[in-house]
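Hypothesis: this fold can be encoded by more than one sequence.
Test: take the structure tokens below, design a sequence, compare later.
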């Protein structure tokens, strides 16, 4: 399974993880219909094709880094903050150049669910100025922002100060480092903002 590490985010277990902007977890030949067992993360990534959308992050149950899965898993119900072990099989194949989605998968079995750790974190990557001009990212007042429906509030002075500055700057890509909220329904906690490839503080 493909996984590309980025140096700007740490995952739930302290691993470097991919933000999912351009990668796929599919792997293998498109004609391979072998069932696979994955761990589905409790956070989403950004997938991109002609547009942009939030997509699931998966990895092998043997471990490794999470990678973005451009196509949804048919029959699987994603819940923020919950990881799951699932068995899937490919059911349809596409030209990924058309819609960003190469292989569709269907859920065969959901084996287990469990909550992410208290300090679980993930990264969403902005592409500028596209994500602002197309309305994917909206910066509100008092440190609040929304990216593709994900509400966030900065929880550190450095993040609050950096957010408007980098949005108005010249960096083509910005990483937003987030932690899950303490309670369901609350905004995600934005603790670091930096240019893609930097070390989040």
């Amino acid at each position: 399974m493909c996984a590309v590490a980025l140096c700007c985010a740490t995952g739930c277990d302290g691993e470097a993880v991919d933000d999912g902007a351009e990668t796929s977890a599919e792997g293998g030949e498109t004609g391979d219909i072998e069932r696979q067992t994955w761990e589905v993360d409790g956070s989403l990534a950004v997938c991109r094709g002609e547009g942009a959308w939030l997509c699931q992050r998966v990895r092998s149950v043997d471990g490794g880094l999470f990678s973005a899965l451009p196509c949804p898993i048919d029959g699987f119900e994603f819940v923020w903050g919950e990881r799951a072990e699932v068995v899937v099989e490919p059911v349809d194949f596409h030209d990924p150049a058309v819609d960003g989605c190469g292989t569709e998968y269907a859920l065969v079995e959901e084996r287990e669910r469990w909550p992410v750790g208290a300090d679980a974190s993930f990264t969403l990557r902005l592409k500028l100025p596209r994500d602002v001009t197309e309305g994917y990212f909206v910066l509100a007042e008092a440190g609040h922002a929304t990216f593709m429906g994900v509400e966030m509030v900065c929880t550190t002075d450095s993040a609050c100060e950096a957010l408007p500055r980098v949005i108005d700057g010249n960096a083509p890509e910005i990483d937003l480092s987030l932690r899950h909220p303490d309670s369901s329904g609350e905004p995600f906690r934005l603790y670091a903002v930096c240019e893609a490839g930097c070390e989040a503080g």
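The first helix runs from residue 96 to 99. The first strand starts at residue 36 and ends at 48.
Hypothesis status: open.
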